[in-house]
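Re: the 493-residue chain
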Amino acid sequence: MTPRDVSRPFGAGALHPLRCAVAVAMILAAIAAGLAIAPRYQHAHAQVPALDRAQLLVIELQGVIGVATAAFVNRGIEQAQAMNARAVVIRMDTPGGLVNATRDIISDILASPVPVVVYVAPSGARAASAGTYILYAAHVAAMAPGTHLGAATPIGLGPPPGMPGGPERQPEPSDEKPKSPGEPGSAAERKALNDAIAYLRSLAELRSRNAEFAERAVREAATMTATEAAKNGVVDLLVPDIPSLLAAIDGRTVAIAGATRRLETKDAAIETLSPNWRERAIGIVTDPNVAYLLLLLGFYGIFFELWNPGFVLPGVVGGICLLIALAALSVMPVSYAGLALILLGVALMAGEAFTPGVGVLGIGGLVAFVAGSIFLFEPEAMPFDFGVAWPVIAGATAITSAFFLFVIGFALKARQRPVVTGIEELIGSRARVIEWTDNRGLVHVRGETWQARAAEGSMPVPPAAGDSVRIRALDGLVLIVEPAKHTLDQPGR
C-alpha cells in the first residue's frame, strides 16, 4: 500500500508570498519617503488666519530638542513673517538636545526678520544645555521666577573639579607643552570644548550679554537661577507670565539685519502655534529611546519570520519597524560601530539559539549587544543631553536575553520530541492484524492497510486476526512490528 501524505505545507492558504512582498515594499517605501521629506516640509501652503491687526505668535518648546523641534521653530518663524507678526515668543522648557537641531534653531533666530523673544517658563522650567545657547541667541531673553539655565558642557568633555574659570590657551596636537591638570585629555576633546565656548561667547557678544558666565556654563557646567541671571546681565527680564512679558518689552528696541526695530507688543493679539501631525510623528520616532526600541522590534520581527517562513505578520511588522527606525536614525548622530555591535550581538545570540552549546556565543552576543546599545550615538556629535536611557538599555537587554534563552529551551525540547509528521510518526503506534502468514501479513493503522513483517525473534507464535501489534520500525513501505505486550504502548494510539 502507498501511504497517504499526512504532511501539509506550513502557512498553506496564506497570501501569495510575492504579492505580500510587493505590498509590504510599497507600504515601507511610502513610510520611508514620508519620514524623509517631513523634516524639510515647510508650512508654505498653510492658511494664515486673516486678522485685522498684527499678532504675536507663541511657540511652545518643551522637552528634548530634536529634528522635529527645529522644523517646528522654523515653521513658526516663517508663519510669523507671513502674518507680519510683531514678535515671536518661544516659551521654553528643555533639558537639552541635538547639537545640529540646536544650531538650526539658532540660525533661524539669527536670520529671522521678526523679533524673537525666548522666555523660560513656567516656574520650575529650565534652559539647560542646548537651551542656554538658544536663550543667548534670542533678541530678547526672559525668565520666569523659579527657573534656571546653564550646564552647557558638551557630553564626554566635562572637566573635573578645579577647572580654571578664565580662558586659557589650548595646545595643538603638535605642541609638546603639557596641558594643565583641568583640561580634557585629547586634542579632539579640547577642540570640541573650545568650539562650544567660542560659539556661546559669540552669541553673548552679539546680544551684549554676560560672556563670562557663557564660558563658565560650558567650561565648568555652571548654572544660574533666574534671579541671578537677571542681576548679572545673562537675561534681559524677569517676569512671571506672558502678559507681563509683553508689557515689559513694549517699546524696547532690538537690532535685526543691521537695522533697529522698536517692539510694539502691549496690545498685540496672541496666537499659539501647535505642532502639526508630521512634527509630532517625527518627534516621537526621533526620540532615541523610541528609535532604539523600534530597531529591536524590527530585528525580532525579521528573526521570527525567518524562523517561521510563511507566517507573514512578524515579517511585515518587523520590516516596518526596522525601516522607521533607520529613517529616524538617519537624522541622528548614529555610531555605525555601535549599530554593528548590536547586529553582532543579535546574530550571536541567534546562533546560540540554533546551535546550543556551552554558551560562548550567547555570552558574547549579550556583551556585544550591551556595548552597542551604550555606544549607539556619537557623543562628540551631540554635546547636549541626548541618548538612550539606561533603564531602556537594561530592559531591552533583559528582554532580548530572555527571548533567546526561551528560543534555546524551545529548540532543545523540540529536538527531543518524537516526529509528529510524515510516516515516521507511525513508529510506536499500535496496529490491528488483518491477516498473517508465517512472518508476514497485513495490518490496519490510522484507517489504512499496510504490509508488515515481524521483527526478528519477536513473534515465535504468529498473531491471529484482530490482535494488536506495535510498530517498531519502517523498512521502506513495510512496517516492522512486534507484539504490543512487549513494550509500553503510547497513550491514545
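The chain has 14 helices and 16 strands.
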